[in-house]
Amino acid sequence: MAYGDDTKSKSKKPCSKCANKMRKEKPPAKKKPKSKSEGDDPFDDIKEGALKKQLGFKEDDRIPKSLLERIKKSKSGNSMVINGKERKVTDLLQKRVNFALNFGYKKKK
Questions:
Q1: What is the helix (H) or strand (E) element at residue 69, kind and residue range?
Q2: Which of 42, 50, 52, 67 is the most exposed place for a label (fewest CB within 10 A)?
Q3: Mean pLDDT, 10 residues at a time, over the chain (109 residues)?
Q4: Strand 85-88 to strand 79-82: parallel, antiparallel, or no bridges (unpaired)?
């Protein structure tokens, strides 16, 4: 390679014309078709027992409502002692607790 020969460019960015061509060549993102078939339930993909497993409860045990409310009030990232073990409160745990409180416990009138 001779001095001043720039055949191998080290820049990783393509020129504006090449970049436009690259953008046009990408295939459009495929969207999943929404089907309204019979039995189409919004709760089909919910994992049963995930909250109990995450908290360390057995399948046939009932989680105390006071514990769920305590988890819901705590901030994400804090640690709590649940069932004798220290557990970290995550966003997913709070979402599961919120769902359990809304659908698992009847409100008193």
A1: helix 65-73
A2: 42
A3: 56 66 64 60 80 91 92 92 90 93 77
A4: antiparallel
